[in-house]
Design goal:
By secondary structure, this protein is of the alpha+beta class. The chain is built from 6 helices and 14 strands.
Length: 315
């Protein structure tokens, strides 16, 4: 197949994102914690390693320093030892293993205040630090051993508390009257502002984060999430821009078309992994009816009658 035939095939199959730039979509609190911990531990030798697992939707940070694998017994739900041994990562004599998870505010955990847990080969301190202004909380689990530097342990705990305070303060400083924060948007989705189904999915999977899209096409705020939700804020109401809500990539190619007194917001998003397909949608500004997909067959009809879309606002 020649290069022209290959190009045609790719166009038929769908859009392929060839951009090589990798944007950091990790949670802002995770980014701050990673930077602060790196700065504080710069003199450690060997250097600690930092990991933000892809499977965690970029809301988990793992910091390892002198860790090793242990063979440990597992326990059943009644606390009885199972017969088989399993491999578990933990700190060596002078090391630590730090696991941090960003959760939605109010998530139920075993840890409410700082508490120690004694394991067979190491100790673990577990705590929850609330970032109320972002409607989030930091779940903090630090495993360490008998010879781990106590000052190092104290430093890691102070960083988590400092980041909590700094993020709360920063939200207050950056607050704009009438504007929603990403945390508030997540909170409202969980409460059902986009419908019961999306609220149940968000609360069940704990897979919800949002960030505001930087754009100068309209005055309304637009938010996208790694979970595939794209929405617009209109008169304080959340409007779902992509039907079904889940599985869509961030919006791009935003434009506004005027049709008399009506203004239609047009936009695109991608679905699929690897070979991606581009979908076009539009929303009649001020209608409160939710955005819909524009296909090649009904494109002109929807421009004239945008409310024909069967995608509601989630209610």
């Amino acid at each position: 197949m020649n290069k022209y035939g290959l190009t045609l095939l790719l166009c038929v199959l769908g859009h392929i994102n060839v951009s090589s730039a990798k944007e950091d979509y990790s949670d802002p609190i995770i980014r701050t914690l990673r930077a602060e911990i790196k700065k504080e531990l710069v003199e450690l030798d060997p250097k600690p390693t930092f990991e933000v697992p892809r499977s965690s939707d970029a809301r988990t940070l793992i910091v390892r320093y002198r860790t090793r694998d242990y063979h440990v017994h597992t326990y059943d739900n009644k606390g009885r030892i199972r017969g088989t041994l399993s491999s578990s990562e933990g700190p060596s004599d002078e090391g630590f293993l730090l696991n941090i998870h960003i959760q939605y505010l109010g998530r139920t955990n075993n840890a409410v205040t700082l508490q120690p847990i004694q394991h067979k080969h190491w100790k673990e301190d577990v705590a929850v630090y609330k970032v109320e202004k972002e409607f989030k909380q930091i779940y903090f689990s630090l495993s360490y051993n008998t010879k781990t530097d106590p000052d190092l342990i104290a430093t890691l705990k102070k960083i988590a508390d400092r980041v909590r305070l700094d993020h709360n303060k920063q939200v207050e400083i950056n607050a704009v009257p009438g504007k929603l924060t990403p945390g508030e948007v997540c909170f409202r989705i969980r409460k059902g502002d986009l419908g019961k189904e999306l609220a149940e999915r968000a609360n069940k999977t704990d897979n919800l984060w949002m960030q505001e899209v930087e754009q100068n096409v309209i005055d309304n705020q637009i938010f996208c999430g790694g979970n595939g939700i794209n929405l617009l804020v209109e008169d304080g109401k959340l409007i779902l821009l992509c039907p079904r809500g889940w599985g869509a990539g961030p919006l791009f190619d935003l434009t506004v078309i005027s049709n008399g007194k009506e203004r239609v917001l047009k936009y695109s998003w991608t679905i699929g992994s690897g070979i991606q397909r581009t979908i076009q949608g539009q929303y009649l500004l001020g209608s409160g009816k939710g955005g819909g997909i524009v296909t090649s067959l009904e494109k002109q009809d929807l421009i004239q009658n945008p409310n024909k879309s069967d995608a509601g606002d989630g209610k």
